[in-house]
Amino acid sequence: MNKLQVAVIGTGFVGRVHVENIRRQADAEVVAIADQTADLAAQFGQVLGIARTSGDYRELLDDPAIDAVHICTPNHTHFAIARDAITAGKHVICEKPLAMTSEEARGLVELASSRDIVHATSYNLRFYPNVAQMRRMVATGQVGDVLAVQGTYSQDWLFFDTDYNWRLEPEVGGSSRAMADIGSHWCDLLEHVTGKRIQAVCAELATFHPVRKKPKKPIETYAGKMLEPEDYEDRPITTEDFGAILLRFGDRARGALTINQVAAGRKNRLLVDIYGTKCGLSWDGERPNELWIGRRDGNNELLVKDPSLLEEQARSFADLPGGHAEGYADTFKQFFRRFYAACRDRSRAREVPGFDAGLRQLRLVEAVLRSHGEGRWVEVDAAARTD
To answer: What is the rounded CA–CA span in Å between residue 109 and residue 303?
Structure first.
């Protein structure tokens, strides 16, 4: 079998994650790297053993031998690169957010739908084994009718005012930060698991560090800070550190979400609680191999990930036997496996979040921003119609 030839565009934290997990696929290989400068691409290629590098992604898109591209660049570049990749006939995985606005994302959805390509937005958290298990438990009626959902996505990597990253700058990261960066992951996972759509939101956002110390030299995402006071300059901040969001799912189900990027001690905690008429489920992304199942009229359970204990349709998300942990990197492995299978067989049912998932989350982000700005409930679809 000839392997799919893949190019990765972007050499930061998530670019490395993509390269490492493409290499775990039997039917694909990374053959080229691109970044904003030739030097950055060459340095990355040398570290990871990729000979072909470029400072211009369009050079790689012009190569007919390249079948697929992974877009792992800062947010403000996603739209143009994805548009160019689709036009060049490449299969595309794009990191979220898919674009800077829902209007841009809608254009990408329409363009991708007009071509014979496979497209995906990188909502990788869907691909944990116990997330797949929760989805099956809801779908098969074991949870009953979903009444309430609640949870948080909390991190501390922007806790200090000296913590800095390009995501803080709206011209690069977008007008929303915490909601777009981590809240969208929570919302995508929740809608994926329950099969319900968030119809309306009521949000309050807060920026606790209105001024941050921006390093005078570039630093990588999550990198430790070893700088002196003279190495910083003041930068006003307008994007949110925190959000509290009420959620409506039609006539009955309700929800509540907090997002927080200044939560001391929480490294990357995505917690989701789902309460139905038969039982409750709770899953914590910092303990991904455990799933709590709660009952009013019986013993609670703690399901430890084990393929033999998972629902049949969730079992394929776990490659290792019980007691052997599967984590963040493994979600990309499972995601890419299904993406490349669809690239080889277009008739195959799509198991990955397409560009439509990226559009969906941008509409939710825009509804949250509008709700906060206007101090009221905002219907998600109504917000989208006024784009």
So the answer is: 38
Strands 146-154 and 269-276 turn out to be: antiparallel
Please tell me whether residue 53 adopts helix, strand or coil conformation: strand
DSSP state of 105: H
CB 151 within 8 A of CB 272: yes
Quote the CA–CA distance of 44 and 53 in Å, as a whole number. Answer: 9
The alpha carbon of residue 335 and the mean position of all alpha carbons in its chain are separated, in whole angstroms, by: 12
How many other C-beta atoms are found inside a 10 Å radius of the C-beta of residue 347? 5
Over the range 224-262, which residues count as b (16 or more CB within 10 Å of their CB) and which as e? eeeeeeeebeeeebebbbbbbbebbbeeebebebbbbbb
Closest among 367, 362, 363, 384 to 78, alpha carbons compared: 362
Q: Locate tokens 């991904």: which residue? A: 288
Sequence-separated (6 or more) residues with CB below 8 Å from residue 26: none
What is the model's pTM? 0.93
177 contact partners, CB below 8 Å, separation of at least 6: 167, 168, 239, 240, 241, 261
Angle at 92 between CA 90 and CA 94, to 5 degrees: 150
- Rounded CA-CA distance 105/83 in Å is 10
Taking a C-beta distance cutoff of 8 angstroms, is the pair 349, 361 a contact? no
**Cis upstream peptide for 97 (omega within 30°):** yes
**How far is Cα 34 from Cα 53, in angstroms, rounded to an integer?**
6
Task: Show the beta-strand stretches assigned E in the chain.
Answer: 4-9, 28-34, 53-54, 68-71, 91-94, 119-121, 146-154, 200-206, 211-215, 232-236, 242-249, 253-260, 269-276, 280-284, 290-294, 301-304, 378-379
Q: Is the pLDDT of residue 319 over 90?
A: yes
SS3 at position 133: helix
pLDDT tens, position by position, 242-264: 999 999 998 899 999 999 999 99
Please determine, for residue 139, whether its predicted confidence score (pLDDT) is greater than 80.
yes
Residue 347 has what pLDDT?
85
**What is the pLDDT, as a whole number, of residue 221?**
57
Phi, psi of 21 (to 5 degrees): -90, -20
Residue 230 has a pLDDT of: 73
